[in-house]
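Note to self: keep these together.
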Amino acid sequence: MLVNMLCKEIEIRHNYLENKKLSTIYFGGGTPSVLSSLELNKIMDEIKKRFEIAPNAEITLEANPDDLTPEKIKELVEVGINRLSIGIQSFFDEDLEKMNRSHTAEQAIQAVKNAKSGGINNISIDLIYGLPNLTLEKWAYNLQQAFKLDVTHLSAYCLTIEEKTAFNHFLRKGIIKLPQEAETIEQFEVLMEEAGKHNFIHYEISNFCKEGLQSRHNSSYWTNEHYMGIGPSAHSYNGISRQFNVANNAKYTRGINVVVPEIEVEILTEANKFNEYVMTHLRTVWGVSPGVINTSFGEKSMNIFLSGAEPYISSGHLQWKQDSLILTQKGKLLADKIASDLFI
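Structure:
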């Protein structure tokens, strides 16, 4: 049923991208690896009907490790998937149990091996640091396992506690205790150091890749390209506004059925656009270009930015890289604060 709605939304909203050729397609936002090859093909056929797809398009699917059997990999390759983002999170079963993950560490390792044997070599895995009882030794082990699997991309995120989760319940009951901020910072520093030793480029605060193998899809968010999201809760951006599909499945379905998708629209002010440019670009290896600010937002905005950046340049948190300002290793520990201080 939901697959039919996705296809119908593609039909209804395809003009949003104004006939733009697609260079990336991303199946994510949940557990798309549970979809059958028939369902994935149906969505891909609708995309092909409405859009021109670049010959070298990056087509990614988020996957749970326990879904990636050899048979499943074969199906994904036949559909056209050429990149996987695998939600491993940890190589310790006790941590996976706390996170209510359905896979084991052994299944995670086997999933990567299955993908490679089946012909998908562009593989990203997710890991989480800042977990309860995650020592530096355990974190280093997680990283070494990732490097040993020879994946092309690594995303590493600090644990955030959401309401109505097992972690939040355990935390409130005092069953678990989160690490101190200093411990989490140390884990991030170990992440940067070890990734560098294994020739991974730290191209965005939470993302590392082998040369030339950054996520082209996610990079489009950070470099202000336009995109369209399909399905409940999906986001879209066209340079003028951000659009947010309703999260509720029933409301989403009703809207698609009457050809009036339930979408919230946020029109971006010049200040919004400036702040988003600073926030997204500062997180990347490409940094923030005062020249781009001058061209896009005017000389006054550029001067405000440069004035705000000066103390961070002096303190060694920002540095010049050609004509752009980028975060230093020290600056990456304060990325959000630095960005907010540079907002207008």
